[in-house]
User: Which sequence fits this backbone?
């Protein structure tokens, strides 16, 4: 199955599909999403509220993953390392230094960004399949670090967060909405710029880009770092909503899988793919969980395999193929 | 001083025997990647299926768990063959999609195993007497497990180099188009390869369960071990995998003794990462051309 034509579709469609991806349309949809999300944060009750903010959380994570993997072609199977890093750093800042939660989350984003620069400088030298495996191993390695250095991270017992000022599930929900919207804006502004074009050029042909005198590392590393920061922020917020951090929860491979699945279901290398994927997947996951409480993982596994088997190119590209939406431009 | 030497020698021998198990659980992963570019995450689940087959043979049929070979070899080969032919085939040459697809399969197998066998650790209890040889004392079951490992890996090597199907598999791995032009059916070869990879995982699981207890989730850790082994040796290189399994088992045995279990795992992960940096295609692997 040749998917290079799908990935390259962005270029061909730039000319005829630009209107749907144009600035007014994009910001119109983003604003609607933001207002709707904020409104729902104050209307919905306990369970539905949780489903909604999980939707926005996974949209942010999937957008962040797509920012790196969808555009530069460096496919990470370890986004959870930065999710967990964000969660743990946030918790440490609150518990040990007594920083207010909003400051802790932001600072954790910055610190995880620095960590990502360091990690990226090392692992972005690896390409292709080996990059996939390296990220998978690195995520496991992060979890082992948390387990080994018990004095700092609390080991397998984790740490708890209690009595946060100005914090409630509703506030968290609004923050998740803001994070999702911010990630979408960052992605849109990047991919419609020359910078984004160069990121996409890395995906298409990294050697050709180098031969034109462009240093790919700059773009790869930026993509990697932005991906890390946008993943760490929801990680920190997730720790706050749970009120605790455990290695098994914060570095759970399920988070990686759901994130990638949301992005791929919607469509890799598209701006709106993550939102479409999240709209389908997150409610479905909750329904599965309610319907098959003991077997939901099996059903999720079947679903995961089924999606890759049936629509590997993602819904946004599929809908464009069917002519439901105009062909996909770079800004869509 | 002599006690130190004894300890080191005993650890080394344990490492050699563990190496047999690690070679066997890793070699199928390497073979499948080498032939069709599929990263098989379900490999860990196949390993653990073999382990549970041995437990069923012991607990339900009341036989020596080694008899489970008659269940594992045909059963897992057939299962792997069908799985590749009907499902995994769509992701051939697409490593990223193959990871997701096989992850789905792994979750399903794990879930089913958890329902059937619960999450309580289970182990077989045969050949638990120790053998002393030149001052080194190891358990009989360790020797049997390690031997199964090296024998299994050796049989694969002979099969690939001598038999007609084995040569077709190697031809498909090295030059798929050329192999096809010579009349080799690549779909059939890929299905056979996946079947062999699956059955090797299962036999690896049998040798693992002889020595260690298993839960449905042990497969995940074994998969990571297999990845590290294969990275060390080079994806797709069988000789490399054999060397990798041996080295990783030594690092783990000594690491676990001198540092502790979790620390030793951490050491393994960073060994693997370091190696990926210095030599991304492994000790014996070929430089791949996937990206770009």
Assistant:
């Amino acid at each position: 199955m040749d998917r290079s034509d799908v990935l390259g579709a962005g270029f061909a469609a730039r000319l005829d599909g630009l209107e749907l991806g144009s600035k007014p349309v994009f910001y119109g949809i983003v604003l609607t999403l933001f207002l709707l999300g904020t409104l729902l944060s104050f209307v919905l009750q306990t369970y539905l509220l949780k489903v909604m903010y999980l939707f926005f959380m996974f949209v942010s994570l999937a957008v962040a993953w797509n920012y790196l993997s969808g555009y530069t072609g460096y496919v990470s199977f370890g986004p959870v390392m930065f999710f967990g890093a964000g969660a743990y750093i946030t918790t440490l800042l609150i518990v040990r230094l007594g920083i207010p939660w909003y400051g802790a989350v932001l600072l954790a984003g910055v610190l995880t960004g620095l960590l990502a620069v360091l990690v990226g400088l090392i692992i972005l030298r690896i390409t292709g399949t080996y990059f996939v495996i390296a990220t998978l191993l690195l995520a496991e390695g992060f979890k082992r670090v948390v387990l080994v250095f018990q004095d700092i991270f609390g080991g397998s017992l984790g740490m708890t967060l209690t009595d946060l000022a100005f914090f409630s599930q509703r506030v968290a929900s609004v923050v998740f909405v803001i994070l999702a919207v911010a990630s979408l804006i960052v992605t849109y502004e990047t991919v419609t710029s020359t910078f984004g074009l160069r990121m996409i050029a890395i995906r298409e042909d990294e050697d050709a880009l180098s031969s034109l005198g462009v240093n790919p590392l700059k773009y790869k590393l930026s993509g990697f770092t932005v991906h890390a920061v946008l993943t760490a922020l929801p990680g920190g917020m997730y720790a706050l909503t749970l009120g605790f951090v455990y290695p098994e929860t914060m570095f759970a491979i399920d988070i990686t899988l759901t994130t990638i699945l949301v992005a791929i279901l919607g469509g890799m290398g598209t701006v709106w793919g993550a939102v479409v994927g999240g709209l389908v997947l997150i409610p479905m996951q909750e329904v599965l969980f309610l319907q098959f409480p003991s077997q939901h993982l099996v059903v999720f596994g079947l679903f995961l395999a089924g999606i890759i088997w049936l629509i590997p190119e993602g819904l946004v590209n599929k809908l464009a193929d069917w002519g439901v939406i105009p062909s996909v431009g770079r800004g869509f | 001083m002599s006690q130190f030497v004894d300890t080191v020698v005993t650890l080394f021998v344990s490492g050699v025997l563990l190496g047999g198990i690690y070679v066997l659980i890793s070699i199928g992963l390497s073979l499948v990647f080498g032939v069709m570019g599929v990263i098989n995450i379900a490999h860990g689940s196949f390993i653990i299926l073999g382990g549970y087959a041995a437990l069923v043979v012991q607990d339900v049929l009341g036989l020596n768990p080694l008899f489970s070979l008659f269940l594992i070899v045909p059963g897992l080969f057939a299962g792997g063959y069908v799985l590749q032919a009907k499902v995994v085939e769509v992701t051939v040459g697409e490593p990223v999609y193959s990871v997701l697809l096989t992850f789905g399969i792994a979750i399903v197998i794990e879930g089913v195993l958890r329902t059937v066998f619960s999450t309580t650790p289970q182990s077989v209890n045969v050949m638990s007497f120790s053998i002393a040889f030149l001052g080194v004392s190891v358990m009989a079951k360790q020797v049997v497990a390690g031997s199964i490992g090296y024998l299994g890996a050796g049989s694969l090597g002979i099969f690939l180099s001598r038999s007609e199907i084995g040569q077709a598999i190697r031809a498909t791995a090295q030059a798929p188009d050329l192999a096809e032009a010579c009349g080799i059916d690549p779909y059939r070869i890929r299905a056979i390869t996946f079947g062999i990879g699956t059955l090797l995982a299962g036999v690896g699981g049998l040798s693992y369960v002889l020595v260690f207890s298993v839960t449905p989730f042990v497969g995940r850790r074994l998969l990571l071990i297999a990845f590290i082994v294969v990275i060390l040796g080079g994806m797709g290189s069988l000789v490399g995998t054999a060397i990798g399994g041996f080295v990783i088992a030594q690092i783990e045995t000594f690491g676990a003794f001198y540092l502790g279990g979790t620390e030793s795992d951490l050491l393994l992960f960073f060994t693997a990462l370091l190696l990926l940096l210095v030599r991304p295609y492994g000790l014996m692997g070929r430089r791949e051309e996937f990206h770009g």
User: Anything to note?
Assistant: Confidence is low (pLDDT under 50) at residues 288-292 of chain B. The CA atoms of residues 3 and 288 of chain B lie 47 Å apart.
